[in-house]
Amino acid sequence: MNTRQIILDTETTGLYPNSGDRMVEFAGLEMTNRRLTHRALHLYIHPGRDIPEDAAAVHGITLADLEAKNAPTFEQVGQQIADFLRGAELIIHNAKFDVGFLDMEFGRMGLPTVEGLGCTVTDTLGMARKMFPGQKASLDALCTRFDIDRSKRVFHGALIDCELLGEVYLAMTRGQYDLMDEYGGYGSEDDAAAKIQRPPSLKVLSAGEAELAEHEAYLDTLDKITAGKCLWRTEAGA
Questions:
Q1: What is the tens place of the pLDDT at every residue in 4-13?
Q2: Given 38, 46, 93, 156, which residue is catalytic?
Q3: b (16+ CB within 10 A) / e for 79-98
């Protein structure tokens, strides 16, 4: 898997991109091969309008804060955001909201939409609702489900939410990958044996107690994700 992915989140002045609300924060973290690349884009953005108190209570961003930071307008950074996103798979929680604001802001500048930039979108909210029907699917709820520490999330900041969402996404999709996919995708055990030539001098080292405990903890996580259908334990008859 070599797809360039971007974990993305935004904060805004309100809920309605087509009724005058604007973006006040953008964050994106790049990931390839299920690993963060440390390439990121994080921007505070002056909305050119007031920020209602109820919105500021959610994300903690006030107009005074943005003016103190000398935050740019979207028109000043929109091209930078578009170039960062171009051609990537966007991982977003409640994607309709963020894509709606991005498309609105891009449209004001005459830039392409998210789709026009060649991006695809994966909505982790929709994924969670399919995986855990009838249960809470908020980012907080998913962090609790997957034992992800969210103690630093005082407000709904775009950057901290991206960091948490990255961990949630990896936990949600861990069951989609196995060792054969990662190391060549062999079709059968016979094929794998034929491909791997083990030298006679190769030493076999048994796992220690700490490694075995770590492995069991990992399988416990897979069981939680797959509702007790972890293939390793199922095929081993555990």
A1: 999 999 999 9
A2: 156
A3: eebbebbeebebbbbebebb
**Is residue 221 a contact partner of residue 171, using CB atoms and an 8 Å limit?**
yes
pLDDT confidence of residue 180? 33
Half-sphere exposure of 67 (CA within 13 A, CB side): 7
Q: Is 147 annotated as a binding residue?
A: no
Look at residue 196 in the predicted model and tell me its pLDDT: 46
Which residues touch 42 (CB under 8 Å, ≥6 apart)? Answer: 25, 26, 27, 28, 158, 159
CATH architecture for segment(s) 4-176: 2-Layer Sandwich (3.30)
- Give the whole-angstrom CA distance, residue 167 versus residue 15: 26
pLDDT at 235: 59
H/E segment holding residue 96? helix 95-109
Tell me if 123 sits within 8 A of 8, measured CB to CB.
no
**CA 40 to CA 72: how far, in whole Å?**
18
156 is catalytic: yes
Question: Binding residue per annotation — 54?
Answer: no
pLDDT(26) > 70: yes
The H-or-E segment that residue 85 falls in is helix 74-85
Which range has the worst mean pLDDT, 13-17, 64-68, 96-100, 197-201? 197-201
Query: Of 70, 25, 63, which is closest to residue 162 (Cα–Cα)?
Result: 25
29 burial (CB, 10 Å; 0-12 / 13-18 / 19+) is: buried
Is there a binding annotation on residue 93?
Answer: no
Question: What tokens were used for 133?
Answer: 């029907």
